[in-house]
C-alpha cells in the first residue's frame, strides 16, 4: 500500500504536475513510530488485586552495562549517591573520609553569584559531612564521568533558607574497593551559588487557573503518556515518546492569543481559545479540529493572506491544511500524504512571492524495511555520529488556494537532506531579504542552507555550524546584541552517554554527541562556537531550547524544556 | 567497527533500553527544566530554581507569548508526562517592553521572515546595544511561539525608530515609536499604529497541577479485531483444553482467589448468566492460581455454572505477550482481566480491574457486528474525529499475529 502511494507521488512529480490537495486525496497511511514490541514475559501476580507487579530491584541481565563494563560500577556508585542525596551518609562514607568545603559562606549581596573551588581536603565525621550536605538544600546528584574508583559528579541543590539560592557544582569523588563502594574523598572542583533576595520565583504556575475548568483537563493534561500508552493500542497510533507540539496564534481575531495543542493517535488535538479574563476554553470539536490522528507539529499562519490564521498540522497520515473560515471553524482543505514520519514544521516565504511555504522535518525513512519491523529496529541511524539514512525533509511551495507542491529537489534542498531531522527554523542571516534555513539533525551534522533568490546551498561546514551532536531544536536570536543573527541549538546532554562514550571504543565525535546545547554567535560570514565559554551546555536531555528575554533587559536568556522518558520506576538509565 | 556492525549494535542497544523503558524504567527522566540568565557579558548563569522554571516533567514543545499582555513574556510548556501542559506566568518586577506586530501588504500578511531593528536613541551614545528580532512561524522543537516581536527596553523611556527588512528585502523606516506597549507596523504605511492596552487580569489559582494516580483499571475498546492466542487450561474435571471455541464468541475472565475484586465479580457474573446466554456470549472463567482446589471451591460457592478452569502457566506468558504487542508501554499483568472475544477468537475489548457485567454486555451488543470503520471510531477514549480510514484487517493480522503457543 505504502510503496504504491510513493509511486503515485513520484509519478505526479515526474510529469511536472503539482500535487493538488483535496478531500479525495486523503489516504489512510498507517505508519507507527515505535518499534514492534519486544517480548518480555512478566509474571502475573496471583496474590493481589490490581496492584502493580513488584518493582524489579534486580536489573535484567541484558542491560548495556555488560557491553560497557564501567557502567556496572556506575550503577553501584549511583545507588550510594542516591543515599547521599537523601542525607543518609552513614553507609556511604569510608573510614577516614575527607572532603573540601562544598561552597563559600553566603554573601549578603543582592543577586550575588559566588563561585570557586572547595579548597583543601579535611577529615570529616559522618555528622559533619551530613551537616555540610544539609546546608546545601535539596540535592540532586548525577555521575558525568566515571573511571573506576574516581567519579566526576554534577551536583545541584536549591534552598529557600536562609535565603533563596541555588547551587551547582562539579565534585571529584574517590571510592574504595568495597561492595558497594564507599567514598574516601569528595573534592569540589568548581561550585557556583546564586542567591537572591527576591521572595518568589520569576514565574508562577497558573495552568490550573487558565485551563483547569475544561472537561478535558483531567484526562488530557493530568494524564500522561504512561497512562494512555497502557490503554490505547499501537493500532491506534499511540507511542510512548510523547512528541506532540503546540502553536500559538489568534485564531478568532479578538486580539488575544490562543493555543493549539497536538496529541497522540486516538487522543483528540485541543484548541484553547483565550477569554478576556485570561482563561482559555477548549473548543477543538466546535472548530472542527479535534483530530485523532497522531499529530506532531502545528502552525497557525495566514496561508491565503485573507487576514485570519489558518492551521497546518503534521500528522502521520498527512500534512493537513485547514482554512479558517472566519466564522469559528477550520475547514480541512486537504493534505500532503508524502510525509509519513513528520516532526517540526516551519513556515517562510522562501521564494518571496508573497505567500507562506512550509518546511517539514521527516525524521525517519519509515518502516518499509522488513515486514513487521518498525522504528529503529527496521531502520537504524548509521553511522551513529553521521547518519544519512533518515527521512527526506520536504519543502512545500504554496501555489495558492490551499494547493502545495513538493519543490525540495528543484530548489536545491535535497543536499544532506536525509539526516534524521527533528527541527528547523528560518532566519534571514545575510539580511538579503530571503530566509535561510537551519536544520537540526539527531545523529551528527546539522545543515545551514543559504537561500540565494530561492536556490539553496548547504553552508553549515564553511559557516562552522555543523554542530555534531544529537540536534533536537533550533532557536535564532541575538543574545550578544551585535545585530547579527546568532543560533542556539538544542542537543542531548546525557550523563550516561558521556560515561559510555568516554570509555574505550568510541571516537571523539561520539563524545561530542552528548555535549549538550550549543550557542553559535555570528562573526562576519562564519559563526563561533561559544557553548562552553558561555556556560550553557548542560541543559539535560534538551528538546525545545529557546532564546527569549524574560526580564525585559534586552538580553535574551535561555529556556530549556528537557527530559527523555520519566517512568514509574526510579532506576534512571 | 564496520557500519553494518555499528548499525546493528545501535539497534540492539536501543531495543535493550526500550525494553526496560516499556517495563517502567526511566531513561534520562526526572530532569528538571532549565533557565539560564544572560548576564550581558557573554555568560549565562543557570538559575532554574530562582526563576521557577525547574519542573521535572519530560518537556517537549515550548511556546513563548505574552499571554496576558502585561508586557512580560509568559511560557506554555508541552510535556510528555503529566501535567502535559504548563502555563508559567511571568510575575517578575521587570522593566518595560515594546511589542511589535507586523502586517505585510506586498509580502505575506503575517510578515513572517521580516527582520526588525529597534534603533538606539541618540541620547544614549555609542554604548547602546542593538535590539533585533525577526518574525518566525515554527522553531524550537515542535513549537510555534507568538508572532508578536518582543523588545525588552528596560528603563529606557526614549522614543525610538525602527528599520524593518520586509520579506523580499525592502527596508522601511518607522519613526517615533513608544518605548513600551503594543504597536502595529503595516508594510508601506511608514506609520506605527498604537494598540490599546489590555486591562490587567487576575488569575487566582497558583497551585501546580498534579498528575492523577494510575489505579490500573481500564476499559478498552480495541480499534480493530485483534487475533487472540489460543490458550491452554485445565477444565473443572482436570482435562486440558484450549480457550478457542469454533464459531462461539466468549468472555474470557481471568481471576485469582487472592483477589477480592475477583471474588466479588464471580457471583455477579453468575447472576447475569441468563443475560449472557440471551446475548449468545459464553463465559469462561479461568483462575491463574496454582492452588486449584481453592479456585474450584470459590467457583462453587459463587454459584458460577459456566465453564471454568485454571490457566496453564505458559498461557500467562502468551497473555503478557499479547498485551505487550498491543501497547507501547507494557501494562503490568494483573487480575481481574477480561477479554471480549468474537466468534473468530479475535479480541474486541479488554477490561482490567472490576467492570460490571452490564457494561460488558452493552459493549458486546455494540461491538458484535461492528465493521472496521465503526470499531475505529468507537475505540478512542475521548471524543474526536478521524479524517483517515482504519487500518485494513489484513494489515492488523500481519502486524499482530496471535502469540505462538508454547
Keywords:
heterodimer, A: 573 residues, 32% strand, globular, B: alpha+beta
Question: How would you portray this structure in words?
Answer:
Chain A is α+β, with helices and mostly antiparallel strands and 573 residues long. Chain A contains eleven helices and 30 strands. In chain A, strands 1, 2, 3, 4, 5, 6 and 7 form a seven-stranded mixed β-sheet that branches. The longest helix of chain A is centred in the first third of the chain and has 16 residues, at 70-85. Chain A is globular, with a radius of gyration of 26 Å. Chain B has 406 residues and is α+β, with helices and mostly antiparallel strands. Helices cover 22% and strands 29% of the residues of chain B. Chain B has helices spanning 3-22, 48-51, 260-271, 273-278, 292-301, 313-326, 357-367, 372-378, 393-399; strands at residues 34-38, 44-46, 59-65, 74-79, 85-90, 96-103, 115-118, 131-134, 143-144, 149-154, 160-165, 171-177, 181-186, 192-195, 218-227, 232-235, 240-242, 250-255, 282-287, 308-311, 337-341, 346-352. An eight-stranded mixed β-sheet of chain B has the order 15-22-21-18-19-20-16-17. Chain B has a four-stranded mixed β-sheet with strand order 10-6-13-14, with no helix packed on it. The longest helix of chain B is centred in the first third of the chain and has 20 residues, at 3-22. The radius of gyration of chain B is 31 Å and the shape is elongated. The mean pLDDT of chain B is 92. Chains A and B meet through β6, β7, β8, α4 and α5 of A and α1, β1, β2, α2 and β3 of B. β8 (203-205) of chain A pairs antiparallel with β5 of chain B, so a sheet runs across the interface.
Amino acid at each position: 500500500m505504502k510503496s504504491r502511494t510513493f509511486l503515485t507521488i513520484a509519478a505526479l512529480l515526474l510529469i511536472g504536475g503539482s500535487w493538488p490537495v483535496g478531500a479525495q486525496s486523503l489516504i489512510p497511511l498507517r505508519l507507527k513510530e515505535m518499534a514492534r514490541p519486544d517480548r518480555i514475559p512478566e509474571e502475573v501476580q496471583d496474590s493481589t488485586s490490581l496492584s502493580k507487579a513488584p518493582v524489579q530491584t534486580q536489573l535484567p541481565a541484558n542491560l548495556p552495562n555488560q557491553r560497557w563494563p564501567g557502567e556496572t560500577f556506575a550503577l553501584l556508585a549511583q545507588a550510594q549517591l542516591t543515599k547521599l542525596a537523601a542525607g543518609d551518609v552513614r553507609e556511604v562514607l569510608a573510614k577516614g573520609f575527607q572532603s573540601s568545603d562544598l561552597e563559600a559562606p553566603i554573601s549578603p549581596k543582592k543577586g550575588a553569584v559566588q563561585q570557586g573551588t572547595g579548597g583543601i581536603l579535611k577529615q570529616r565525621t559522618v555528622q559533619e559531612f551530613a551537616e555540610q550536605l544539609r546546608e546545601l538544600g535539596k540535592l540532586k546528584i548525577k555521575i558525568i564521568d566515571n573511571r573506576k574508583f574516581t567519579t566526576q559528579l554534577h551536583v545541584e541543590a536549591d534552598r529557600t533558607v536562609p535565603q533563596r539560592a541555588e547551587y551547582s557544582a562539579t565534585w571529584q569523588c574517590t571510592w574504595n574497593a568495597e561492595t558497594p563502594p564507599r567514598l574516601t574523598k569528595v573534592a569540589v572542583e568548581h561550585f557556583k551559588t546564586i542567591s537572591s533576595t527576591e521572595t518568589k520565583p520569576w514565574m508562577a504556575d497558573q495552568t490550573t487557573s487558565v485551563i483547569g475548568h475544561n472537561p478535558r483537563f483531567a484526562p488530557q493534561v493530568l494524564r500522561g503518556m504512561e497512562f494512555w500508552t497502557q490503554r490505547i493500542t499501537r493500532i491506534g497510533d499511540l507511542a510512548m515518546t510523547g512528541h506532540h507540539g503546540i502553536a500559538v496564534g489568534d485564531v478568532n481575531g479578538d486580539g488575544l492569543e490562543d493555543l493549539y495543542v497536538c496529541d497522540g493517535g486516538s487522543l483528540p488535538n485541543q484548541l484553547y481559545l483565550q477569554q478576556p479574563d485570561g482563561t482559555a476554553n477548549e473548543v477543538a470539536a466546535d472548530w472542527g479540529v479535534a483530530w485523532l490522528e497522531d499529530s506532531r507539529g502545528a502552525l497557525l499562519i495566514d496561508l491565503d493572506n485573507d487576514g485570519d490564521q489558518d492551521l497546518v498540522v503534521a500528522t502521520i497520515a498527512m500534512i493537513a491544511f485547514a482554512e479558517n473560515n472566519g466564522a469559528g471553524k477550520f475547514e480541512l482543505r486537504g493534505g500532503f500524504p508524502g510525509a509519513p514520519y513528520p516532526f517540526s514544521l516551519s513556515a517562510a516565504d522562501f521564494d518571496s512571492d508573497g505567500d507562506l511555504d512550509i518546511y517539514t522535518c521527516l525524521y525517519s525513512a519509515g518502516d518499509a524495511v522488513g515486514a513487521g519491523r518498525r522504528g529503529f529496529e527496521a531502520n537504524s541511524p548509521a553511522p551513529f555520529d553521521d547518519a544519512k539514512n533518515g527521512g527526506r525533509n520536504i519543502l512545500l511551495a504554496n501555489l495558492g488556494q490551499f494547493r502545495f507542491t513538493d519543490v525540495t529537489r528543484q530548489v536545491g534542498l535535497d543536499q544532506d537532506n536525509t539526516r534524521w531531522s527533528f527541527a528547523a527554523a528560518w532566519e534571514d542571516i545575510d539580511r538579503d531579504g530571503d530566509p535561510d534555513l537551519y536544520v537540526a539533525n539527531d545523529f551528527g551534522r546539522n545543515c545551514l542552507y543559504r537561500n540565494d533568490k530561492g536556490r539553496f546551498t548547504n553552508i553549515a561546514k564553511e559557516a562552522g555550524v555543523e554542530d555534531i551532536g544529537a540536534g533536537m531544536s533550533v532557536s535564532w536570536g541575538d543574545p550578544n546584541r551585535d545585530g547579527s543573527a546568532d543560533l542556539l541549538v538544542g542537543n542531548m546532554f546525557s550523563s550516561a552517554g558521556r560515561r559510555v562514550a568516554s570509555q574505550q571504543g568510541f571516537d571523539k565525535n561520539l563524545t561530542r554527541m552528548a555535549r549538550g546545547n550549543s550557542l553559535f554567535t555570528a562573526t562576519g560570514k562564519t559563526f563561533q562556537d561559544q557553548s562552553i565559554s558561555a556556560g550553557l551546555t548542560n541543559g539535560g536531555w534538551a528538546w525545545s531550547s529557546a532564546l527569549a528575554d524574560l526580564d525585559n533587559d534586552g538580553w535574551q536568556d535561555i529556556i530549556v524544556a528537557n527530559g527523555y522518558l520519566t517512568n514509574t520506576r526510579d532506576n534512571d538509565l | 567497527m564496520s557500519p553494518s556492525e555499528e548499525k546493528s549494535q545501535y539497534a540492539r542497544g536501543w531495543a535493550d533500553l526500550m525494553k526496560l523503558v516499556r517495563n517502567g524504567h526511566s531513561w534520562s527522566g526526572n530532569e528538571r527544566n532549565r533557565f539560564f540568565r544572560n548576564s550581558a557579558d557573554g555568560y549565562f548563569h543557570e538559575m532554574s530554581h530562582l526563576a521557577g522554571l525547574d519542573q521535572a516533567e519530560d518537556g517537549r514543545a515550548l511556546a513563548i507569548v505574552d499571554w496576558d499582555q502585561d508586557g512580560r513574556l509568559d511560557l506554555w510548556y508541552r510535556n510528555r508526562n503529566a501535567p502535559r501542559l504548563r502555563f508559567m506566568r511571568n510575575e517578575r518586577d521587570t522593566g518595560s517592553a515594546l511589542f511589535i506586530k507586523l502586517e505585510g501588504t506586498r509580502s505575506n500578511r503575517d510578515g513572517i521572515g521580516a527582520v526588525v531593528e529597534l534603533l538606539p536613541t541618540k541620547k544614549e551614545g555609542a554604548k547602546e546595544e542593538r535590539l533585533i528580532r525577526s518574525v518566525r512561524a515554527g522553531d524550537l522543537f515542535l513549537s510555534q511561539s507568538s508572532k508578536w516581536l518582543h523588545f525588552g527596553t528596560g528603563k529606557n523611556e526614549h522614543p525610538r525608530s525602527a528599520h524593518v527588512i520586509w520579506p523580499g528585502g525592502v527596508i522601511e523606516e518607522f519613526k517615533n515609536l513608544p518605548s513600551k506597549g503594543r504597536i502595529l507596523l503595516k508594510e508601506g504605511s511608514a506609520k506605527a499604529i498604537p494598540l490599546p492596552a489590555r486591562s490587567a487580569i487576575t488569575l487566582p489559582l497558583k497551585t501546580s497541577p498534579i498528575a492523577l494516580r494510575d489505579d490500573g483499571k481500564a476499559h478498552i475498546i480495541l480499534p480493530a479485531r485483534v487475533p487472540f492466542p489460543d490458550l491452554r487450561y485445565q477444565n473443572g474435571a482436570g482435562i486440558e483444553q484450549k480457550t478457542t471455541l469454533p464459531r462461539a464468541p466468549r468472555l474470557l475472565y481471568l481471576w485469582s482467589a487472592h483477589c477480592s475484586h475477583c471474588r466479588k465479580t464471580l457471583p455477579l457474573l453468575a447472576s447475569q448468566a441468563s443475560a449472557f446466554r440471551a446475548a449468545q456470549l459464553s463465559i469462561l472463567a479461568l483462575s491463574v492460581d496454582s492452588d486449584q482446589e481453592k479456585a474450584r471451591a470459590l467457583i462453587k460457592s459463587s454459584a458460577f455454572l459456566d465453564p471454568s478452569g485454571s490457566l496453564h502457566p505458559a498461557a500467562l506468558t502468551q497473555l503478557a505477550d499479547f498485551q505487550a504487542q498491543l501497547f507501547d508501554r507494557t501494562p503490568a499483568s494483573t487480575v481481574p482481566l477480561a477479554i471480549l472475544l468474537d466468534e473468530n477468537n479475535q479480541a474486541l475489548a479488554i477490561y482490567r480491574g472490576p467492570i460490571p457485567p452490564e457494561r460488558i454486555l452493552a459493549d458486546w451488543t455494540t461491538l458484535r457486528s461492528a465493521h472496521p470503520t465503526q470499531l475505529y471510531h468507537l475505540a478512542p477514549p475521548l471524543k474526536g474525529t478521524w479524517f483517515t480510514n482504519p487500518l485494513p484487517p489484513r494489515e492488523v493480522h500481519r502486524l499482530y499475529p496471535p502469540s505462538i503457543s508454547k
